[in-house]
Specification:
158 residues; single chain; 2 domains; 36% strand; Thiol Ester Dehydrase, Chain A
């Protein structure tokens, strides 16, 4: 386990993505994931009840030049999974078991903001709603994710 004073292999990645320093110990061993980096997701607010991040449209479009529907889902699943993981706490982890999305409006440029809000935070399940909006605040899509919360398996060493 790391501490917040010893830079880990992902320190620069975490800082670039906007991860608050107090979460570096939690994410420092694994980082935020290659897909999150590739999509350009940047976190603005992070807690189990509400997690907010932005993502550029540029580089995440489909052939018609609009934000790919899968990019909406990547942002939603990232936010919901991180929020559920924070809720799960030390010695536990979140596993996505269901995600769905409804697309309301297309966007061809700028930045998308995803706002993840807890619907249910229980001991074994966490469910979040994620609303993606454009720079004018118009709703682009609505997603929902449910994560199973499990204890980490003990390792046998020695």
């Amino acid at each position: 386990m790391m501490d917040n004073f010893t830079p880990g292999p992902f320190t620069d990645e975490l800082r670039s993505a906007g991860i608050p320093d107090h979460l570096h110990d939690w994410l420092g061993e694994f980082g935020i994931g290659a897909l999150v980096v590739k999509m350009g997701i940047r976190f603005l607010e992070m807690n189990p009840e509400r997690t907010v991040a932005t993502m550029p449209v540029e580089g995440n479009t489909q052939v018609a030049g609009i934000l790919h529907g899968g990019a909406h889902v990547v942002l939603a699943e990232t936010l919901g999974s991180f929020a559920a993981g924070m809720h799960a706490g030390a010695g536990r982890h979140a596993l996505g078991i269901e995600v769905s999305a409804t697309h309301h409006r297309a966007v061809a440029g700028g930045t998308v903001t995803g706002t993840c809000t807890a619907i249910h935070l229980g001991r074994t399940l966490a469910t979040h709603e994620i609303v993606m909006t454009d720079e004018k605040g118009r709703r682009l899509s609505t997603a929902r994710i449910t994560n199973l919360l499990r204890d980490n398996e003990a390792t046998n060493e020695g």
